[in-house]
Amino acid sequence: MASENTAVLAPRTLKSAKTSYDSLRFLPWLFLAPSLVIYSIVVVYPMVYSAYLSLFRWDGVSPTKVYVGLDNYGILFTQNDVFWIALRNNAIWLVAALLLPTSIGLGLAILLNARFRGSHIFRSVFYFPSVLSLAVVGLIWTWIYHPDLGLLNQVLRAVGLKALARNWLSDPNIALYPVIIAATWNAVGLPMLLYLAGLQTIPEELHEAAKVEGANPIQRFVYITFPMLRETTLVVLAIMAINALKAYDIIYAMTNGGPANKTQLLSTWMYFLTYNYNQVGLGTAIAVVLFSLTLIFAIPYIRFMTRKT
Amino acid sequence: MKIRLLQFLSSAGVLVAMACSVPVGTAQESAKPPVPTGNVTFSLWGIASQPWQIMIDDFQKTYPNLKVKWTKYSTDEMKQAVRVASAAGKMSDTWFNWGGSLAAPYDEGGHALEMTPQLMAQYGVDKNIVPAAMELARNKGKLYGIPVWVRPMTIFYKKSLFDKVGLTAPKTFDELEKVCETLKSKGIIPVACGGKFSWMTMRTTDFFVEHFAGPAMHDKLFSLEASYSSPEVIKAFSKLKEWVTKDYFNDGFISLDPAQALPLLQQDKAAMIFQGPWIEDQNIIASHEDPNNYVPIIAPSDQKPVRVSGFQEQLQFWAKAKPDQQKAALLFASFVTTPEVAKRHIADFGAPSAVVGVLPPENRPITTTMANWLQGEVQLYLPTDQALPQELVNAFFQAQDSLVLGTLTPEAACAQIQKAVDQYKAQHK
Fold first, then answer.
1. Tens digit of pLDDT for each residue in A187-207?
2. A:B CB pairs within 8 Å
């Protein structure tokens, strides 16, 4: 009797289990659906639409768009001088963003990782610029760099270094670098914080053992600290690179891309072409170029983070 | 976008227009704008620093069933918001805008409501707004908004500093150059300028073009009928270069924020500045300074008719707004441009009103002086960044700033602008 029942019920149970397994397979997608819908609307669709617009000549307002194929890309690469200036500036900005905030942040983190009275206050002080918006940072540093009334030139004159005083943001040969310094002041807090967190994970025993073996502080940094911070460094570099390619506000606030477009970045030039100069096709073509450049850093970063998770 | 003809810039002055216009009482009697029934809320996009709240409060008090939802923007945000909204097909019921090439895309793209003669009569526009302001607002003879303010821009000098060095206000171009020379020799910066956005430098460049090319040719340059490579324009650009070389502007002015230029006058480091009447409220009175110490003079171009740079500011209306919202928005613009209402708000405007018979209060000497010019024989020419199609404004700015930096000669700068003009004309045949 019992075996007869089992023989009858078994296929049904299997079928039911398979059905519930099938329905469970879609359950994660169901939970993800709201996020995916929002992500598609606010990220994917605008990106695809921007790429589509880059194939047209359009002022952004008139009801008619003229299809020009890849002409906008041709114009950018062959006729638009400012595009190349912006690309070069982006490269400089990227190198500076990878070197300056990262190394200064690491140095500060090592100093502040030591236990001393008031270390928490110093951590807050050094992190403080990071909580300011880049527009505010831009405003502060614009006044510091003011040729006549600015703190920097006044200090240089007061200490007898008048020859070093200059028009920091007006000289097309150097104007980008004062902006990079201001951006570094703002950016250094994040790597400092990440490195501080990374330093806390290094077992103290390693340093103790190295000390016993006679390693000096530089050797301990080179052979223990820095290798142990490899993952943190990768994350910091990726974030700094992506942020560098996204840089916009501080240029807008400090130089507006000038003088004579000499401090334009791809992001600012994209904005000006699209919103100020009615050249939406060219502006969105820059957006596509910028997006492609960002992917170079974003894909390894995302793969690394996903693998880690 | 097609080339806009700007021949209307040489239209009659505001006073002439005011003199010809219908008396205030008649205007009020004839204008009977329709009032929407029931509760209606409509959206207004306006510049945060402008006195919209005072006008909104007054309007809502008069029409309790109508509510204004004001979204505040900075200048550049405003341009961006309207552009994005027009591309998305969902605009504000009414929005603040400038004129010229900044408004033209919305006019020609079918986004801004055309003020037909019928609408103008219905909302009292033809009676309440001075015709010269309407002429500045017109695009190819049609009106797509209601002008609210007129903003002339010219040279201001600091009286106490001029008195200190024994100078008087220059009346000719030569006198202006002599004044600059004297100021420079006394260690004072002749002209404060904040060229970061290029438009403040452009005011001086435009003035030089007006001086060397004259009003007729200046207008032809704007309508792309004259060449930027012509000797007159090259002379104007050469003069700009000469002033830069002679250090008549402050150090590093090319990247200085315009907001950082006036402090040079306030600290007695500079003596003159190319500005508009808004500095009276926003900067001078706000700093508890005497506005009589900052005197606007008619920029001496030595040309006839006498013109200074200037523009109007208007409210535009979404052509596809819901009927009640559109009516309410039009009523709002009509309300704030009725003379008795405009008189109540003029003290907060910081600019001469575009409304018939409305003069600034006596405690606003700068705005009063400029309003009086406009009531006389002084006319306005649009600044280049409103007169040229926006696609060409960048070419102009880049050439001008490169000239200042010394990376282009005047001839090369002018040729670069003309090249951009030729390309634009070829694309928009």
1. 999 999 999 999 999 998 999
2. 106
